[in-house]
Amino acid sequence: MLSEWLSHVLLPWVLAGVMMTMGLNLTKRDFIHTFRNPGRLLLGTSLQILALPLLAWGIVALLPLSPLAAAGLLLVSLVPGGATSNMFSYLVQGDLALSVSLTAIAAVLAPFTLPLIMGWNLELLGLSTAGLSLPYWPTVGKLLLVTLVPVLAGMLLRCVLKETLLDWLLPKIKVLTGVAMIGVVIALFVSHAQRLPSLRSVETLSVLLLCILSMTLGHQTARRLRLPHASARAITVEVGVQNAGVAMMVAFALLQQPGIGLVPLLYGLLMNVPVFLWMFACLWRDRQRTVSPHYL
Length: 296
Prior knowledge:
- The protein is mainly α.
- About 80% of the residues lie in helices and about 0% in strands.
- The protein is built from 14 helices and no strands.
- The N and C termini lie far apart (about 55 Å).
């Protein structure tokens, strides 16, 4: 079937291409800059790894989601950010080096934390008794192949290529992988359209709540700790924007459960709404401050 080929074959390859592109963008300067402020890295990573899954569980406890839909939402909370979060950090004039570093750290940790915590989630939801399981080491290996390995390959390739060739090549690769990822998401959306929940469903509400509340959590925590505006915005994006592609790959290709993959697919489409609204609000405030220095 077309949907199986999209989710089992094309999605992992496109996802690996996106992660390799991220690796091509990483430089030593990114890490030197951010590791001078390790507290910001620790805060962002803690919010991603610890706070976000707890927030997802709060939404699952609040809303009458089916076990499969709940599993999909919890899965979204466990995946790392990706090139999309870095793009939003750049557009909103956040600390891009911090954003990229947080994404890289999450890409290193996620292959090991995701299968472990998701296994617990399946047990708590009662799905493991129905034969659903996520074998730890096979899952770790497959996640490494589509996340960390391509990132490292991209970093290595950056060291080999000449700067002039890299400057010419990078924009084209970014466009190519971005269009490919969008194309896969749209194709998956069309192939599963009849099974997707309505936009007025509780699944849609859960996805929007996860995105809005996680962004609010990241922003308010960073502001209360009096981090610079650029760092607060980067942390807001990294906590609020998850890599739906990884979640879809785990659901469709590893768990082979389209019912779990529908919520990540919905998230990949709908997360853009609150993120763009927040981004435009930030840029509008920046403009007002520039026009009037006394603007609050």
